[in-house]
Amino acid sequence: MACIPLEKAKSGMKLAEDVYNHGGKVVLCKKGTLLTEAIIQRLVNMGVEKIVIEESLSTQEMRQLIDEKMRLIEEAFSGKDSECMQMLKEAFLDFWRNKFEISSPSIEVQDGKEAEAC
Amino acid sequence: MEKKQRPADILLLKERLLEKLPAIPKVVQEAWKLIEKGNVSPSVIGEVIGRDMTLSAKVLRLVNSPFYGFPNRIGSLKHAIVLLGLDTIKGLLISTVVFGKVTQEIKELWAHACDCATTAGIIARVLNIKEADELTVSGLLHDMGKVVIKNYFPELDAKIQKVKRRNNCTDREAEKEVLGVSHDDINGWMAEKWHFPATLKEGLIYHHQVKKAIKYPIFAAVISLADILSHIYRLKFGQCLPIVEDEVCHILKLNPKIITKIISEMDKSLYTFDWDEI
């Protein structure tokens, strides 16, 4: 998922969130819609500023991304054991795991090496 | 190993730094004077700012940016002022001065300032803190001391970057070693010179020492949290994170559920693309 200004939108991108009108009450374009030039133009005309699109990543790309995030977080938080820092760390680890929908526990980082991919 | 700067050096730095600060445009000065007098209508302020086309455009661009998350497009300065309040407008005017031109050198700082501003607003809304807009501006300005050092003292900045790489430490630790003070102290000098409101000051000065924020600890705590969340969200290889004190969690009564909510809001709002100039 990525938030982008409408001027960066291209046809072929898929909406990850509903697009609302000015007042934030009327849905102009449903989540899941594939954008076309015509749709983008219509959104421009209606004054929409930004949209949230889905990023199309392959499973392997996702796995790489999550592995990298996990490793960076483990590294940046090493030695920072206070209550607050630990809470932030756990929240981010959970968040990235959920975001990339990896529910299997098999990709925990162990001793700097990743476990076998399932 | 740490070379302590003598107080005299620090005073000298303060003097030189405040001298070098960019001149506040006439229109901004005028708007400020009116704001400080108090009891002035938004349309009068709007009229004054409106005389400077570039400035008006910058203010409107910021107001309509994702930081504030207003559902409607804000077309007039008067409307912007009514929505944001005068203190926030004052901070916004200052941010156009501090980040006047986003050069290659300060691009990274600008991107982080944008993230932090958006995140501070999100935190305020999730926690039901009513000063969301003021907090957004604090987020935008929380590293203004760094911007000034980069822009006006490139030789000192080069030293700071060198120390940072050598010691693998945070900006703040490297600044302390080279300058004897850090960007939050410099924020304080600037905030004083520019007569910032006390709420804004606390966020700018104490976002790394929330314990010391006595008057408005919530402000300092929100900026501290917004700062670190923005850093973690875009974590880079070898990056050294600042420490967030446990006080932040206590003051804001944080729990894992709230933090997760804030992170997912950030994920929807922070731009993936670079956000060039104001």
Overview of this structure, please?
The complex is a heterodimer of chains A (118) and B (278). Chain A is of the alpha+beta class and 118 residues long. Chain A folds into 2 domains: 2-54, Alpha-Beta Complex (Molybdopterin biosynthesis moea protein, domain 2); 59-114. Chain A contains 3 helices and 7 strands, in the order ββββαβααββ. A 3-stranded antiparallel β-sheet of chain A has the order 1-5-2, with no helix packed on it. A two-stranded antiparallel sheet of chain A has the order 3-4. A two-stranded antiparallel ribbon of chain A has the order 6-7. In chain A, strand 6 (109-110) and strand 7 (113-114) form a beta hairpin. Chain B is mainly α. Chain B has 2 domains: 1-22 and 101-278, Hypothetical protein af1432, CATH 1.10.3210.10; 23-99, no CATH class. Chain B is built from 16 helices and no strands. The longest helix of chain B is centred in the middle third of the chain and has 20 residues, at 107-126. Chain B is globular and about 50 Å long. The mean pLDDT of chain B is 87. At the A-B interface, strand 1, helix 2 and helix 3 of A face helix 14, helix 15 and helix 16 of B.
Residues in β-strands, percent of chain A? 15-25%
Q: C-alpha Rg of chain B, in Å?
A: 18 Å
The DSSP helix count of chain B reads 16
The domain tally of chain B reads 2
Any idea what the CATH superfamily of the largest domain in chain B is called?
A: Hypothetical protein af1432
Helix and strand composition category of chain A: alpha+beta
**Oligomeric state of the chains?**
heterodimer
Largest sheet of chain A: 3 strands, antiparallel
